[in-house]
Amino acid sequence: xxxxxxxxxxxxxxxxxxxxxxxxxxxxxxxxxxxxxxxxxxxxxxxxxxxxxxxxxxxxxxxxxxxxxxxxxxxxxxxxxxxxxxxxxxxxxxxxxxxxxxxxxxxxxxxxxxxxxxxxxxxxxxxxxxxxxxxxxxxxxxx
Length: 143
Fold this sequence. Notes:
The protein has four helices and no strands. The protein has helices at 16-45, 52-76, 79-87, 107-113.
């Protein structure tokens, strides 16, 4: 998992309204199918009478679930929330797409930074190559 700093350029989410609409469709279709079609039949087979009032409650539950999912989708599109989500691996972009990361620099990384095409290393990095018996313990950051 990568850690984006507070100043990381996490790209702003495009088409926020479209993402909310997609979420409403993705959640609404199964919710209404389950609560309006399947659950009333299960209740009827179980011997529980399905009155119009109960049916209305089931439809309301499906609408509530769909509305909450749409609201959460919109909140997740807020830039500060999206930056936090990138930090925990659930953002709109993979952590590897962020250029300014708060990651520790190991001696092995310092030798990469000192390559001719990379330019001079930052002052706080020791460019000394790693010892021969150095065993890298890198974490697979994944995306």
